[in-house]
Amino acid sequence: MKTAIIYARAKASDSIKMQVSTCREYAEKNEIQVIDVYWDLVLSSLCQPLAWNKILNIPNPEFNYIIIYDHERVGRDLMKQMKDRRNLKNKGVCIITPITELTEESFKQQDEYEKFQEYCYTCYKEALRNRRKSR
Predict the structure, then answer these.
(1) Digit-coded pLDDT (tens) for 37-78
(2) Residue 27: which region, alpha, beta or left (left: phi > 0; alpha: psi -120 to 50)?
Protein backbone atom coordinates (compact mmCIF):
# COMPACT_ATOMS: atom_id res chain seq x y z
CA MET A 1 0.00 0.00 0.00
CA LYS A 2 1.13 3.53 -0.78
CA THR A 3 1.72 5.61 2.35
CA ALA A 4 2.24 9.31 2.89
CA ILE A 5 2.52 12.10 5.33
CA ILE A 6 0.92 15.49 4.81
CA TYR A 7 2.86 18.71 5.27
CA ALA A 8 1.17 22.10 5.55
CA ARG A 9 2.72 25.50 6.07
CA ALA A 10 0.95 28.85 6.38
CA LYS A 11 0.53 32.02 8.39
CA ALA A 12 -2.97 31.19 9.61
CA SER A 13 -4.41 28.03 11.15
CA ASP A 14 -7.46 28.21 8.86
CA SER A 15 -5.17 27.95 5.86
CA ILE A 16 -3.40 24.95 7.40
CA LYS A 17 -6.75 23.22 7.98
CA MET A 18 -7.73 23.84 4.35
CA GLN A 19 -4.40 22.52 3.07
CA VAL A 20 -4.62 19.36 5.20
CA SER A 21 -8.24 18.78 4.18
CA THR A 22 -7.39 19.12 0.47
CA CYS A 23 -4.38 16.81 0.84
CA ARG A 24 -6.47 14.20 2.72
CA GLU A 25 -9.09 14.21 -0.06
CA TYR A 26 -6.33 13.78 -2.62
CA ALA A 27 -4.83 10.86 -0.68
CA GLU A 28 -8.20 9.18 -0.36
CA LYS A 29 -8.92 9.62 -4.08
CA ASN A 30 -5.55 8.06 -4.97
CA GLU A 31 -5.75 5.26 -2.37
CA ILE A 32 -2.84 6.55 -0.33
CA GLN A 33 -2.84 5.89 3.40
CA VAL A 34 -1.95 9.02 5.39
CA ILE A 35 0.11 7.99 8.40
CA ASP A 36 0.85 11.41 9.87
CA VAL A 37 0.36 15.16 9.45
CA TYR A 38 3.05 17.78 10.01
CA TRP A 39 2.54 21.52 9.87
CA ASP A 40 4.37 24.77 10.45
CA LEU A 41 2.63 27.98 11.45
CA VAL A 42 4.98 30.66 10.17
CA LEU A 43 4.34 34.22 11.26
CA SER A 44 7.19 35.67 9.20
CA SER A 45 9.86 34.59 6.75
CA LEU A 46 12.29 34.50 9.69
CA CYS A 47 10.42 31.61 11.39
CA GLN A 48 12.18 28.28 11.26
CA PRO A 49 10.06 25.51 9.70
CA LEU A 50 10.53 23.05 12.57
CA ALA A 51 8.14 20.37 11.28
CA TRP A 52 9.71 20.45 7.80
CA ASN A 53 13.18 20.10 9.30
CA LYS A 54 11.93 17.18 11.40
CA ILE A 55 10.65 15.47 8.23
CA LEU A 56 13.98 16.00 6.46
CA ASN A 57 15.84 14.42 9.37
CA ILE A 58 13.86 11.16 9.46
CA PRO A 59 16.63 8.61 8.74
CA ASN A 60 14.48 5.83 7.24
CA PRO A 61 11.05 7.15 6.27
CA GLU A 62 8.21 4.67 6.47
CA PHE A 63 6.24 6.51 3.80
CA ASN A 64 6.46 6.83 0.02
CA TYR A 65 5.14 10.36 -0.40
CA ILE A 66 4.89 13.75 1.19
CA ILE A 67 1.66 15.38 0.12
CA ILE A 68 1.81 19.17 0.12
CA TYR A 69 -0.84 21.60 -1.04
CA ASP A 70 1.56 23.60 -3.19
CA HIS A 71 5.26 23.25 -3.95
CA GLU A 72 5.93 26.65 -2.38
CA ARG A 73 4.86 25.23 0.99
CA VAL A 74 8.35 23.75 1.37
CA GLY A 75 9.89 27.20 1.03
CA ARG A 76 10.63 29.86 -1.50
CA ASP A 77 14.41 29.39 -1.53
CA LEU A 78 14.93 27.39 -4.74
CA MET A 79 18.40 26.19 -3.76
CA LYS A 80 17.16 24.84 -0.44
CA GLN A 81 14.16 23.26 -2.18
CA MET A 82 16.48 21.42 -4.58
CA LYS A 83 18.68 20.19 -1.74
CA ASP A 84 15.65 19.03 0.26
CA ARG A 85 14.12 17.23 -2.74
CA ARG A 86 17.41 15.49 -3.49
CA ASN A 87 17.69 14.43 0.16
CA LEU A 88 14.16 13.00 0.14
CA LYS A 89 14.56 11.33 -3.26
CA ASN A 90 17.69 9.57 -1.99
CA LYS A 91 15.52 8.19 0.84
CA GLY A 92 12.89 6.98 -1.64
CA VAL A 93 10.35 9.71 -0.89
CA CYS A 94 8.51 11.70 -3.56
CA ILE A 95 6.77 15.05 -3.01
CA ILE A 96 3.33 15.25 -4.61
CA THR A 97 0.56 17.84 -4.64
CA PRO A 98 -3.21 17.70 -5.16
CA ILE A 99 -2.71 19.61 -8.40
CA THR A 100 -0.48 16.84 -9.81
CA GLU A 101 -2.17 13.62 -10.90
CA LEU A 102 -0.44 10.39 -9.92
CA THR A 103 0.40 9.06 -13.36
CA GLU A 104 3.53 7.73 -14.99
CA GLU A 105 3.65 10.97 -16.99
CA SER A 106 3.53 13.12 -13.83
CA PHE A 107 6.49 11.21 -12.39
CA LYS A 108 8.41 11.68 -15.65
CA GLN A 109 7.64 15.41 -15.50
CA GLN A 110 8.80 15.53 -11.88
CA ASP A 111 12.04 13.75 -12.86
CA GLU A 112 12.58 16.29 -15.66
CA TYR A 113 11.86 19.12 -13.20
CA GLU A 114 14.37 17.68 -10.74
CA LYS A 115 16.98 17.28 -13.49
CA PHE A 116 16.44 20.91 -14.44
CA GLN A 117 16.78 21.94 -10.79
CA GLU A 118 19.98 19.91 -10.54
CA TYR A 119 21.32 21.64 -13.66
CA CYS A 120 20.46 25.08 -12.18
CA TYR A 121 22.14 24.13 -8.92
CA THR A 122 25.28 23.01 -10.78
CA CYS A 123 25.35 26.30 -12.69
CA TYR A 124 24.89 28.22 -9.45
CA LYS A 125 27.79 26.40 -7.78
CA GLU A 126 29.98 26.98 -10.85
CA ALA A 127 29.15 30.70 -10.83
CA LEU A 128 30.10 30.89 -7.14
CA ARG A 129 33.41 29.14 -7.82
CA ASN A 130 34.17 31.50 -10.69
CA ARG A 131 33.27 34.49 -8.54
CA ARG A 132 35.66 33.36 -5.80
CA LYS A 133 38.47 32.83 -8.33
CA SER A 134 38.05 36.31 -9.78
CA ARG A 135 38.51 38.01 -6.40
Answers:
(1) 999 988 776 677 899 999 999 999 999 999 999 877 777 676
(2) alpha
